[in-house]
Amino acid sequence: MSDFISSFWSLWVMAIVAFGIIFCVAVLLFGAQARAATAEDRTTGHVWDGDLREINNPLPRWWVGMFWLTIFFAIAYFFMYPGFGNVKGSLGWTSAGQYEAEMAKGDAQVAPLFAKYAAMPIEDIAKDKDANGMGQRLFLNNCAQCHGSSAKGGNGFPDLSDNDWLWGGKPEQIMESVTKGRNGNMPPQIQAIGGTPADAKAVANYVMSLSGLPHDAAQASIGKGKFMACAACHGADAKGNVALGAPNLTDKVWLMGVPSEANIVDQITNGKTNVMPEWHTKLKPEQIRLVSAYVWSLSNK
Ligand code: HEC
Ligand code: HEC
Fold it and tell me: Over the stretch 86-119, which tens digit does the pLDDT of each residue have?
């Protein structure tokens, strides 16, 4: 496959390459003519400070030789490797092919390492020092940019080192989160609770009362009656639902940091979606096993 969008660019590159080589050859041949002449003939006619003559001396032979070598090298290279427009080169080398060959070689080297863990339960992998180290490296390379290098998360990114889970903390639940990704989705709920900002304010105060945050008790008791709408996902006891990724609202763990009334009103009014990417496209199943075991180990010391 050619990387060029039209054959024009291929011809354009060929023309520039050919011109470059022909130009260098021409300059060298021109220089060789100068060598033939005698020193007398080579004078430029410029005389400085009375007797200092400027002579057009030929280039040193070793230098000219090197220059010819580079030209032959370039021609041989373009014959064997891609580079001359979209000509493929006689060796059939491609950067993608080399990458694949090296990856395959790397995979073959680590395969026995991974094979050892394929049949081991996550709990045992987590206790294995080598496996845990590999899991941690996978985590640092792939997960730390969102969940933090110590897995403590951040605004919108869950803490994976505590024992509070949106989607469940059993080994197979963690593996599922990592393999398929997760889509935390709370649609706007304002209509379901009455539709006005006052309704949202009341429910927000009720939510704050659940985890002991400072709240307006009168508002909270109004809000309690409207929490039915939320119970479908967060549960009647507001302790969350791992099947939907709906967080527990009664604990002190908050995905977006400890909320104010305004934050919760905003969550109710506008809803929120939050995406954990799927990894089965990027990591192999055996890598997912190791990184999941590492994550599991963080909250199961
Ligand atoms: C682009 C950012 C991003 C990256 C990279 C990322 N995650 Fe996540 N992850 C998230 C978000 C956001 C959530 C929360 C989804 C939600 O709100 O439901 C999440 C959730 C999770 C959960 C579920 C947490 C719970 O409480 O149930 C696990 C487990 C997890 N991630 C592990 C990983 C692992 C392991 C990696 C690396 C292989 C990784 N994540 C890489 C953004 C990311
Ligand atoms: C359709 C299911 C669903 C309904 C109904 C729902 N929620 Fe949610 N809620 C979620 C999900 C899923 C999340 C997590 C979103 C994320 O991953 O960022 C969430 C997150 C929240 C949060 C943030 C929690 C945190 O840890 O930061 C609050 C507060 C909240 N919901 C309150 C409510 C209230 C109040 C109602 C009722 C008015 C409600 N929810 C109704 C699914 C729902």
Answer: 888 999 899 999 999 999 998 898 888 888 898 8
The CATH number for 104-181+277-299, chosen from 3.90.1150.10, 3.40.20.10, 1.20.1440.230, 1.10.760.10, is 1.10.760.10
Pocket of ligand 1 (CB under 6 A): 142-143, 145-147, 156-158, 160, 165-167, 174, 177-178, 182, 184, 245, 274-277, 279, 291, 295
- pTM score, whole prediction: 0.76
For residues 212-228, average pLDDT: 96
CATH of 185-276, one of 1.20.950.20, 1.10.760.10, 1.10.10.10, 2.50.20.10: 1.10.760.10
The reply to whether 185-276 shares the fold of 104-181+277-299 is yes
Three-class SS of the chain: CCCCCCHHHHHHHHHHHHHHHHHHHHHHHHHHHHHHCCHHHHEEEEEECCCEEEECCCCCHHHHHHHHHHHHHHHHHHHHCCCCCCCCCCCCCCHHHHHHHHHHHHHHHHHHHHHHHHCCCHHHHHHCHHHHHHHHHHHHHHCHHHHCCCCCCECCECCCCCCCCCCCCCHHHHHHHHHHCEEEEECCCCHHHCCCHHHHHHHHHHHHHHCCCCCCHHHHHHHHHHCHHHHHHHCCCCCCECCCCECCCCCCCCCCCCCCHHHHHHHHHHCEEEEECCCCCCCCHHHHHHHHHHHHHHHCC
